[in-house]
Structures are given as structure tokens and as C-alpha cells.
Amino acid sequence: MDFMRLLQSLEELLYELASWLVFYPVTLWRTLTRPRDMMRYADSELGDTLEKRYTDTLSPPLFLLLTLLFAHGLELALIAHRDDGMLPALLRDDANLLIFRAFLFSIFPLLMAVQLLRRAGLALDRETLKAPFYSQCYVAAPFAFGFSAGMNIMRAGRHEMIVAGGAIVLLSLLWYFVVEVRWFRHDLGIGRFLALWLVVRTVLAAFALVVLASLALSYGLGSGPH
User: Fold this and answer.
1) Residue 82 is assigned to a structural domain of this protein
2) Cα–Cα distance measured from residue 91 to residue 216, given in angstroms and rounded to the nearest whole number
3) DSSP character string of 88-125
4) If 91 and its partner were Cys, which of 6, 52, 87, 217 is the partner (CB 3.0–4.6 Å)?
């Protein structure tokens, strides 16, 4: 019986992994072309039972995690000889590095969700935070990929690669800002300039926390031998 249960678990795992080949591009396309619809979709799906959630897409946190995995793969392809000497020993393992980057980029949807709840005058707890956080994970994923890809292309060092990478970073930021400004305007019923100010302030705070977390890990664990 234990062997049969193991086989059934493997069957389910294999199907789940294979289904990502279909539902990842579907989720990505919908997020890029209809970001606000996807954010509303993320909210509504949380009201369903666990088995019925996100049946035609990937769940938002999984979508963000897989996108960062693809960004990491692109980094390995672009940078043949990555210098890990400046990284803490813990982050020289690819799995640990991916988890840490997922944590860093999750700061963006987290702070956006907190900002929304505060401006709406809603209580901040685990239940109220979940829906806006899930919504934000959808749009954070393309931004994270574009930003990471652009920075890695710039690391190639050649002038044309630096220009191309910088353009990708700027386009990713622009797309993210436009989506977030529209989200704040729609959900809070505020003007364009106030929404822009909230987005700028939140993004800057997120980048500051990313830098602080990176520095804390580096100094806490040591940067290893040079």
C-alpha cells in the first residue's frame, strides 16, 4: 500500500510539473497584457476552496518563484564564470541563492500590500494582508525577471550589453510603475499624482530593505575568503 501511495504521489507530482509548461506561459501572457485583471483574479480565487484555486493559472507566489528560477538560469547562461567570492558561503549554493532572491523580491509585493491596507484604513493582519500580497506577486514577477535580466546583461561588460541591459531595467521599472499607479488609483480612488507618490515611496523603501537585507546577510555570515 505504501508503494502504491508513493506511485500515486509521483504521478501527481509529474502531472503538476508538466502542467507548468502550459500554465506558466498562460499566466505570464495574462499578467503582461491584463495585469489589473490578474490582480483581481488573484483576490477572487482566494475565496475558493484550496482544490479549486488557480485551476487555469499558476498561483501568484509560485509564479514569482518560477520566474526568479528562469532569471537565475539566464544569469548562469550569460555569465560563464560567475565570481562567488564576494557572496556569503550560504549563498554560493544555487538553491539557497534562489530562495534568498525570492525573499528579496517578495519585499516589493509585501510593501505594496501594506501600503494599500494603510491607505484604505483597514486592519493589518495575516488575513487582510494575504489577498493584496497575492495580487502583487503576479505583477512583481515580470518586473523581477526584467530587472534581474537587465542587471545580468549589464554585467557582461561590453558597451552594447550595458546599454541593452540598462534599457531592459528601465522598461521593467516603467511597466511596474504604470501598473502600480493604476492599481492604487483604482483600489483607493485617489488621483494620479498621489498614486505615483505612493508607488515611488514604496518602491524606494523596498529597494532600501533589499540593500539592508543583503548587507545584513553579508556581514552576518561573512563574505568568505578573498
Assistant:
1) yes
2) 13
3) -GGGGSHHHHHHHHHHHHHHHHHHHHHHHHHHHT---S
4) 87
- Structural domain harbouring 209: 2-221
Q: What is the pLDDT of residues 11-40, one digit of tens each?
A: 778 888 888 999 999 999 999 999 999 999
Q: How many helices (H) and strands (E) does the chain have?
A: 7, 0
Q: Tens digits of per-residue pLDDT, 140-193? A: 999 999 999 998 888 877 788 889 999 999 999 999 999 999 999 998 899 999
Asked whether the beta carbons of 104 and 214 are under 8 A apart, the reply is yes
Q: Is residue 211 part of a domain?
A: yes
Q: How many domains does the chain have?
A: 1
* CA of residue 38 relative to chain centroid, distance: 14
Any domain includes 226? no
DSSP 36-74: HHHHHHHHHHTTS-GGGTTSSS--HHHHHHHHHHHHHHH
Lowest-confidence pick of 181-185, 201-205, 218-222: 218-222
* Residue 172 belongs to a domain: yes
Calculate helix-pair angle for 35-45, 2-33, nearest 10 degrees. 140
Between CA 168 and CA 102 the distance in angstroms is 20
